[in-house]
Amino acid sequence: MAYAEDAEHDDLHQPRSFYAKYIWSQDHKVIAIQYSLTAIAMGLVALVLSAMMRMQIGFPGSIDMDSTAYYQAMTMHGMIMVIYLLTALFLGGFGNYLIPLMVGARDMVFPFVNMLSYWFYLLSVIVLLCSFFVPGGPTGAGWTLYPPQAITSGTPGTEWGIILMLVSLIIFIIAATMGGLNYVTTVLQARTHGMTLFRMPLTVWGIFVATILALLAFPALFVSGIMMLLDKTIGTSFFMPDMFSFGSQLEYQGGSPILFQHLFWFFGHPEVYIVALPAFGLVSDLISVHARKCIFGYRMMVWAIVAIGVLSFVVWAHHMYVSGMNPYFGFFFAVTTLVIAVPTALKVYNWTLTLWHGNIHLSVPMLFALAFIVTFLVGGLTGLFLGNVVVDIPLSDTYFVVAHFHMVMGVAPILVVFGAIYHWYPKITGRMLNDSIGKLHFWITFLGTYLIYFPMHYIGLQGMPRRYYLFEDYQFIPDSAHSLNAFITVVAILVGIAQLLFLFNLFYSAFRGKPSGGNPWRAASLEWLTPDTPPKHGNWGPSLPVVHRWAYDYGVPGQAEDFVPQTASAELAPVHEGDKNE
Amino acid sequence: MAFAVILVAIVVASVLFHFLSPWQATPLASNWGSIDTTITITFVITAIFFVLIVLFVAYSVYKFRARPGGRSKYEPENKKLEWWLIGITTVGICGLLAPGLVVYNDFVNVPAEADEFEAVGEQWRWSYRLPGADKQFGKSSVANMNVDNSLGLDLRDPAGQDDVMVSGHQLHLLLDQPVKALLRSKDVLHDFYVPEFRAKMDLIPGQITYFWFTPTVMGTFDILCAEYCGIGHYNMRGQVVVEDRESYQQWLSEQPTFAQTLTGGTVGGLIAQGEKLAASRGCLACHSIDGSSSLGPGWLDLFGREESLHDGTQAIADADYLKESITDPAAKIVAGYPAVMAAYPFSPEQLDSLVAYIQSLSSGDAPTVKE
Known about the structure:
The complex is a heterodimer.
Chain A: H1 2-9, H2 18-23, H3 28-58, H4 67-103, H5 111-130, H6 161-189, H7 202-233, E1 244-245, E2 248-249, H8 257-290, H9 298-311, H10 329-339, H11 341-355, H12 364-387, H13 389-395, H14 399-429, H15 435-461, H16 479-512, H17 577-580
Antiparallel strand pairs in A: 1-2
Helix pairs in contact in A: 3-4, 3-5, 3-16, 4-6, 4-7, 4-8, 4-14, 5-6, 6-7, 7-8, 7-9, 8-11, 8-12, 8-14, 9-11, 11-12, 12-14, 12-15, 14-15, 15-16
Chain B: H1 2-20, H2 33-63, H3 79-108, E1 115-122, E2 125-130, H4 158-161, E3 164-166, E4 170-174, E5 179-185, E6 190-193, E7 200-203, E8 209-213, E9 219-225, E10 238-243, H5 245-253, H6 258-266, H7 270-280, E11 306-308, E12 314-316, H8 319-327, H9 348-360
Helix pairs in contact in B: 1-2, 2-3, 7-9
């Protein structure tokens, strides 16, 4: 493999100054930490916004929040969580940290572009945050930014908020593209000796396919963002039809609001898998390591990731069953959407079958991984309600939808994020996170989110519409629904506060945590086999590791240890059947 | 052990919650019982997968918990088992999809005998139109919208002359008569949603959307907007009254045709002109006239009242105040209301008529308007 030989040949340029090392760093590990800390900070902003919304829903009028502020909080919460937290954290954070270490590369292939990716991301965050301080405040168009209301009066933040939102998204997409090109190229070109594609950990597969989705899907958001920006600033009519708004006819004519919805969801549905596939990959590795068992059906798992990735591009209009698009589209999109459940279900089966005859350690990362299975299962199954067009019709735009997508792409990926941080933190810092605090954090988060979102489906079934600032005087909504909303709010606030435990643990353990050694979980994959922990610049010392097997040799019969590192040669331990012909 | 027990508890609690919770679908009031059936089928099939998989995880976590010196069994794959699981899942998926698509086929095919009504959405209220005796709607467009013609009907289209322009926020429908809802928006996206009818559909400016249903239960039901449409979204209310033929005909005979609304529009005093202006320009979408809560301050007994402003000062709602609030709404914001109103550039005559109308809604001894 040409890359590996070159990488061993070339001199490594060690950064010397503090700035080159920690600020303008081109080291993928530092960039990963920069990405992660920024994303987590944004997540906290969005968490506070959700607490404010929940106060208004559960206890109307208890905080000084008018409907303008409510819709602004709703919009910013959604956009920040989906884009600036989850997408940035999985690709920019975990992708950056783990890809080079797991495939045995010294760094990303284009370190300078990688650095630029982070700084563009930070710029997009700053532009977005500026919108809190401009006249009119941030946009309150809903995170889907549907025109015409995203840019016409009657919606909060049509003065500057929407412009900053669109500009920020455009900058973010530039950042994601620069990062994404790096991840894809690194996976394809910079794997070390013996690291074939089918020896890569599923984490790398998940992030790799998710990145390809991002590179193909984000352009749809990019063009629709630019078109809407033109509609807003110079009065074009890409998405704007003839309208009579607040007593007068607007200048726009002939545009199509529904075109935006198609473009948005052509991006938006793959976006769900841009978040989910890395989570699938990470959780596969967590389960295998902590169950001390090889992942069940590795090749099927890889093909399932690829199949989900491909199918995710032909299901977008299931977000639009009641949008007024041609109703006959419903037949097609219902079929494709339910077909995607098959490879997804296979992944769930294979996670659970990995537990079967395992030697399961209920460490904190494993607890989060198992909680992910339960949460994702609920979110995935409720997806079958919403994907099946006629079942979606009564449930669309109700709290059922809110509960569904928070389960499947809010809580489930966040549980994986937590599990993965507890798992890889020792590699990043050389210290363990505190176990007791971790368990407390886990139980409150897992049980709390289940208590929030499971009952929420039922007020949606009852017909309670989402995106309502107040539910006064609607005769079909009984008092018991308001009581349930108050209960959900109380639990949500507690779960939100419990995240302080995690933050405390994160910073406390960086200085006071128990030293972990290089491989505290006794894992077989490459990132645990670095000569130094935390890994130094260049990761591997003078020569790159040589890989002889897949990353899942746990419990191999006849071995003294219950795991065989990827670097162990075939003479030391037999290579398993599926891996031999590689 | 604890973890496995909690997983089992989650399964038991979730299933019990489903059957015992007071939060269930509203009583059905339309023909779409078949949609409810598809929901029930989906609950049954998904619940089977949920219960089996979580219990399997709980059992595995308990049974295969780490033991000192324990080892896992080395089993990288089992193709046969995987294909079996794929097969079973596919059967489950077909069990969901087949009934779903059959019912959806009914949903997209409107029966030939269906009557039609039109619901028009604007920020943030509903208006309704019926096709009249000729069973045909007149053409409409945004370019025709003005004070006298708030739904923008084409004056030259003869089919539009007898169209029934429903006054007020109540739509009446005939029991057991299939209806096709034609949906049109003046400004942004909205969604016509009556929870008891199950069906819903978005309104899109620039195009006409539709869906159909048959009301099967007499009574009054809330119409909600289910597609986010700005700050007043939560308050965009309507009502639909389902009634028998006799009451329906009685109601229908009280509604004016389009032609009647036009002739009625050219006469009338200042107050009548103001009333029409308020209705056609959407003022009443945010300002109630019956004392009920609304997005902006209600107009009943407003004239001459002392209002508390959000900056802590007071202001008398006299003619000058009202005119300023219409042409420059941000100047004085009443405490407790969001500063969301757009400025309306009315002519002085129009302002006078609006003020006269608002004054007419007050009963007390208020100062008179200078005319």
